[in-house]
Every structure is written in structure tokens, then in C-alpha cells.
Design brief:
heterodimer, A: 166 residues, mainly alpha, 3 helices, 95% helix, rod-shaped, B: 383 residues, 2 domains, three-stranded antiparallel sheet, ATP_synth_F0_bsu_bac (chain A), coiled coil (chain A)
């Protein structure tokens, strides 16, 4: 202990305190503060980067699921649209078919009716002609009968040859 | 007294801290080791007795000289063919306060061989200290115990230790400012030599300061970082052949411990003083008994810091130099090479000790700061 006390140098103690305290303050200002700040900043930066990466990942996942949802919706819509279109097509075809059928039927019926009426008219005319002809024939016959029997038959035959049913 | 939330951590730290007190080899013990081994050599080499004794005292003196501070930066000495000693090194300025400032180069002492004259006063070196003498011829008077009785002027010289502290301070300043600047230049990533020290800085912050001090650690960071690197660098310089023994000087460790004590005392909170003067959770008479013990404890803590660092470094230097000295005493291929291997192994150990002591000093300082900053959160522990 005595040796220790003897060794203790006040001047060295004084210089040690001066140098060391000055070194603490100098390093604090020019080294430790900037170093610790930079390290903290870097750590914060890393933390933020990790966080934002995580967020981006989540966002990507959300987007992906959104996309899938949209795609599914679109697919569904397309299906329904196609189904509708098919239905409309079939309906249109059916409609056209029935319309055409009815129109055809109508036309046939009209034709039939007109044919009937034509036929009736023709028959009526025929009847009228036949009746006039018969009357004429009868008249002429009667006239010939009155003159010559032979001539009369000849006449009748000739007349009948002229008249062709049509 | 509850110091730490982590008792295991604390126990390990104290165990490591007190280990050197048990295993410390103080100088007197060591010189007996040297004597003991030299006795064996004396029996084998009788005709070398005279020479070996001279060598022994020379080694002893050399070790003592190495442990002491000095007024010049002495690298080595040699004797030329004409048996004249040459000293290689450079002188350092001597600053004395003796009724006025005296400033002169230590080369005036001529390595203690002559008295130095400054402004009409004469000074003489005696066992590494400066004493005032009446004139150039007078020697330093000694008493029966071989202690100098002459007047000692106030000595503020830039000694070898002061010079070395300045060198280390400059190295630290340049190193860490360049590290600080490299962050801005490289976008937050360290570059250059300082890069090696960044993990250590982070270690001190994350594993010393934050676990021991807690949320208030920021205001102590500058001190903890400075003291760690200061002690570490000086310890490492002490192991180089430059032969500086700064941290093995009681004045240096006393200064470091004093600063730790002052910071602890002046940043302590109410809770800390409450635990010292009026320990909660114990009966009133015990409180009266505990108060002086606790108060003494606040001084013992930095005192142990001082002694621990000093003793470790001195012990390391003495043992290492004694073993190196053994090489010259043995002077045979077996003993000398054996002591060389031993010295080599011990040097490796000393490198570890250099870092370990810096770590322990920082760690315990942080522990004391943590105790001074502890919040009153362990109420339930007293029930």
C-alpha cells in the first residue's frame, strides 16, 4: 500500500483526467453521436424496409385474390351471356319457324281459297256456257228437226264435235 | 440490495471480476519466483554465481523501471565495444510548478546522471521522481528506509504515460471520426478501418449498456464507449515492445474509477439514494445498520474497479517480464526455450486479459450506472 501511494503521481492523475474528459467530449461530439445515430438510422431503415416489404407482399396477395375474384366474375358473366344468347338464338329460330309456318299456311289457305273461287267461277261460267250451248243446240235442233231429220242428226253430231269440254 | 434483474449475469460478472484478486501475483511474490529459480541455476552453475546475481538484480531493476512512469520515451539501451551505454529513445517535456513555471526537456537529466537546471533551480531524478536539490553537485538525501527526503515540486510533466495517452487519444479520435464520416459517405454502411470496431460498439450498446442500464442508457453511451476503447487500446499498447504500462499505473486507474464514481453519484435517482440511506423492506434498526455499509459500498465499488485493473495489468507485466528474464538467467537451450514457450503462451493470455479487463471495467461501470438509474419497480419483492 505504501508503495502504491508512493507511486501515485498527482501530475499523471491530473493529465489523465484532463485528457480523458476531453476525449470523452470530443468523441461524443465527433464520433459516438454520429456513429450511433447512423447505426440507429440504419436499423430503422432495415426495419422499415422489412415492414414495407411485408406490406407489399400482403398487397400483392390482396391484388391477386381480387384479380381472381374479378376473373371468376367475368367468367360467370360470360357464361350467363352465352347462355342468354343461346336462348335468344333458339327463341328467334323458333319464332321465325312458327312465323314462317303460319305465313305459309296462310298463303296456302289463300291460294286454296282463290283456287276454289276460280274453280267456282269457271264452273259457273261453264254451266252458263253449257246452258247457252244446250239452248243453242236445242234451238238449232229444233230448227233442223223441223226441216230434215237426217240433217238434224248430222248437225247435232257436228255441234257436239265442236264443243269440247273445256 | 437488488442490483440487477438478471442475477446470473451479475454473478458471472462478479466472479470474473474477483478472479484476479485471488490469483493475482504481486511484484514481491514474483521476484521470489525469480530468486527461487535462480537458486537452482546457482547450484548447477556455481562458477557463474557472481554474474548471475548481477543479472538477477539487473532484471529486477529493469522490471521495476518498466512498471514505472518515466520522463523520456526510452526504447532500448545497448553497450558498445567500449562498454559505454547508449540509450535509444526521445526526451519528453518536463513541466514543474515550484514558485513559478519550470519548463525544460528531460534530456537535461541525462538519464538521471546529472541535475537539471531551470531558472536558477536545480532538479534531480531519483527513482523515477523529480526532487529539488540546492546545486548541480548535490545528491538527493535519503533516510534510513532509503526514502528521499528532498522537497518535491508539483510535477505536471508530459511523462511517457501522458504521452502514450495522448497518442491513444489521437488514434481513437482519428479512427472513430473516420468511422463516423464513412457512414454519411457510404449510405449508412461503415467502411475502412473503423468498420472492425462497429460490431464492438454495437456489442457495448446492446449487451452492456441496454441490459444493465435500460432505457436511460443513451446518456452513458459516450462514457462507456470511450472507456472501453481507451482501456483496451492502452492495454494492448502495454503488450507491445514499446514498453508502456499506462493502465498498470495506479494514478490512471484511480482517475478512471473516479470518473465512474462521479457519474454514478451525480446521475443517481431518488430511488438509488433511498436504497442507500433507508433500505426499504427491512426493520428500522437494520436500516440504521445498513446505511453506513451501503454508503461505504458506493466508494468500495469504484475502488475495486481501480485495484482490479491496476493489479491485473501489473501482474501480467511482471509475470511476463520475469519469464522473459528467466531466459537470460537459464542461458541454456532447454530452460530458455521453455521460458520462451511460456512467455509466448502468456502473451496470448495477456491479449485476452487486455480485452477482458476493458470489458469488465465497462461492464461494471454500466452495472453501477444501472443501479443508480433503477426505477422503483420491485415493490412486490419485499413482501
Amino acid at each position: 500500500m505504501e508503495k502504491l501511494l508512493e507511486q501515485f503521481s498527482l501530475g499523471l492523475f491530473f493529465w489523465m483526467l484532463v485528457i480523458f474528459v476531453a476525449l470523452i467530449f470530443l468523441l461524443k461530439k465527433f464520433a459516438w453521436k454520429p456513429i450511433l445515430d447512423a447505426v440507429n438510422e440504419r436499423e430503422e431503415g432495415i426495419k422499415n424496409a422489412l415492414l414495407s416489404a411485408e406490406n407489399a407482399k400482403k398487397e400483392m396477395q390482396n391484388l391477386k385474390s381480387d384479380n381472381e375474384k374479378l376473373l371468376a366474375e367475368a367468367r360467370l358473366e360470360r357464361d350467363t351471356m352465352m347462355k342468354e344468347a343461346r336462348e335468344i338464338k333458339e327463341k328467334m329460330i323458333n319464332d321465325a319457324k312458327t312465323e314462317a309456318q303460319t305465313a305459309g299456311q296462310k298463303m296456302i289457305e289463300q291460294a286454296k281459297a282463290s283456287i276454289e273461287s276460280e274453280k267456282n267461277a269457271a264452273l259457273a261460267e261453264l254451266k252458263a256456257q253449257v246452258s247457252t250451248l244446250s239452248l243453242d243446240i236445242a234451238e238449232k235442233l229444233l230448227k233442223d228437226e223441223l226441216s230434215n231429220k237426217e240433217a238434224q242428226t248430222k248437225l247435232v253430231e257436228k255441234m257436239l264435235g265442236d264443243v269440247k269440254l273445256n | 440490495m437488488v442490483i440487477s434483474k438478471k442475477p446470473l449475469h451479475f454473478i458471472v460478472a462478479t466472479l470474473v471480476a474477483f478472479l484476479p484478486l485471488v490469483t493475482v501475483a504481486n511484484p514481491t511474490n514474483d521476484s521470489t519466483i525469480v530468486e527461487h529459480t535462480s537458486v537452482t541455476t546457482e547450484t548447477t552453475t556455481v562458477h557463474h554465481e557472481e554474474e548471475s546475481k548481477d543479472l538477477k538484480t539487473e532484471i529486477k531493476e529493469f522490471i521495476n523501471h518498466h512498471l514505472q512512469d518515466s520522463y523520456d520515451f526510452h526504447l532500448f539501451s545497448y553497450k558498445d565495444d567500449a562498454e559505454v551505454e547508449h540509450h535509444i529513445g526521445f526526451p519528453l517535456p518536463v513541466i514543474l510548478w515550484d514558485n513559478g513555471l519550470h519548463l525544460f526537456s528531460s534530456s537535461k537529466f541525462h538519464h538521471g546522471e546529472s541535475a537539471a537546471e531551470s531558472n536558477g533551480n536545480f532538479y534531480r531524478l531519483f527513482h523515477g521522481k523529480i526532487y529539488k536539490v540546492a546545486n548541480a553537485e548535490e545528491q538527493v538525501a535519503v533516510d534510513a528506509k532509503h526514502h528521499a527526503t528532498n522537497e518535491k515540486p508539483f510535477d505536471f510533466s508530459i511523462t511517457k504515460n501522458v504521452f502514450m495517452m495522448l497518442v491513444v487519444s489521437i488514434i481513437m479520435f482519428l479512427l472513430f471520426t473516420s468511422l463516423a464520416k464513412s457512414y454519411a459517405k457510404n449510405g449508412g454502411i461503415a467502411k475502412g478501418a473503423g468498420r472492425f470496431f462497429e460490431p464492438i460498439i454495437l456489442y457495448i450498446r446492446d449487451d452492456i449498456a441496454i441490459p444493465n442500464i435500460g432505457k436511460n442508457h443513451k446518456k452513458y453511451m459516450s462514457y462507456l464507449l470511450t472507456i472501453f476503447f481507451f482501456v483496451w487500446f492502452l492495454n494492448i499498447f502495454g503488450l507491445t515492445p514499446l514498453g508502456v504500462n499506462v493502465t498498470g499505473n495506479i494514478a490512471i486507474t484511480a482517475g478512471l474509477a473516479l470518473i465512474t464514481y462521479l457519474i454514478t453519484t451525480f446521475t443517481a435517482n431518488k430511488n438509488y439514494w433511498g436504497h442507500i440511506f433507508w433500505m426499504p423492506g427491512v426493520p428500522a434498526p437494520m436500516k440504521l445498520v445498513l446505511a453506513p455499509i451501503e454508503l461505504l459500498g458506493t466508494i468500495i465499488k469504484p475502488f475495486s474497479l481501480m485495484i482490479r485493473l491496476y493489479a491485473n495489468i501489473v501482474a501480467g507485466h511482471v509475470v511476463l517480464m520475469s519469464i522473459i528474464g528467466l531466459m537470460f538467467i537459464f542461458k541454456n537451450w532447454l530452460g530458455s526455450s521453455l521460458s520462451f514457450v511460456l512467455a509466448f503462451a502468456l502473451s496470448l493470455l495477456e491479449i485476452l486479459v487486455a480485452a477482458l479487463q476493458a470489458y469488465i471495467f465497462t461492464m461494471l461501470s454500466a452495472l453501477y450506472f444501472g443501479a443508480a438509474n433503477e426505477e422503483h419497480h420491485h415493490d412486490d419483492a419485499h413482501h
